[in-house]
Amino acid sequence: MHLLTVFSHPFTDRYPAAVMEAFHEPFRRAGHTIDVLDLHREGFDPRFTEADHAHFWGGPIPDGIAEMHRRVEAADRLAFVYPVYWWGMPAMMKGWIERVFTGGWAYQYGDGVDDRGKQPLNALLPSIPTVLIGVAGSKQRTYDKYGYREAMRTQIDVGISAYCGIDDVESHLIYDVEGDHNAPRREAGLVQARGIAEAFIAPDRVARTAKADHLAARQEQSSSL
Ligand SMILES: Cc1cc2nc3c(=O)[nH]c(=O)nc-3n(C[C@H](O)[C@H](O)[C@H](O)COP(=O)(O)O)c2cc1C
């Protein structure tokens, strides 16, 4: 297996980096290769520029983006590890998605840009098994109370990943990691991250079907009203 991990955090010696390392341990033990795309260390510019906008409407691919495409294409497993900021991924990572998951590569309407707004969506990416791990300062009960987890799944798993064809996506949160009193939680979070990886690389892992599951859950919800 060749894993591409997209990671976003300003520091490499903070807890989210430890989570990424724990997630990688089972991959390394099993002899798999890992490409860490550390957005801060690589100096990725997350700003959607004029060149990105021109490409969106059919212009040439901006500098550096084709190289990102090649790194995704080289992977047969994808991971995103990030601290939760404002109930979603950090702006740095969102900017990477905005700039790298481009029309004509990740998705396309009809035959191309001229069919935007006219023809149905075609997802263009293969369903590379993908895992998302968000590190959360807040407690699970806060997420449950307000439905933040479902909101994140809807937006990220379905609205980004499955939208582009990566339907085999699973997402996880490690909750309540801040403060000295939560040291045992942080330890448990590292165990959780290793367990996520072990299950993710297991030969008997069952592929996820994020879009169908999401639609079925919505159907069930509306029929119970
Ligand atoms: C700008 C910002 C926004 C945050 N928003 C959330 C949030 O919406 N939900 C949450 O659970 N934690 C949130 N947090 C807490 C971080 O997720 C948490 O502090 C981080 O994962 C812990 O790692 P660190 O302190 O080593 O960066 C936020 C932190 C920052 C800096």
TrEMBL record:
EC id: 1.-.-.-, 1.6.99.-
Enzymatic class: oxidoreductase
Domain spans labelled Flavodoxin-like fold: 1-190
GO molecular function, one term: oxidoreductase activity
Keywords: Oxidoreductase
Keyword Oxidoreductase part of the UniProt annotation: yes
Family of the protein in this entry: Belongs to the NAD(P)H dehydrogenase (quinone) family.
Record protein name field: NAD(P)H-dependent oxidoreductase
Organism: Prauserella oleivorans
Lineage: Bacteria, Bacillati, Actinomycetota, Actinomycetes, Pseudonocardiales
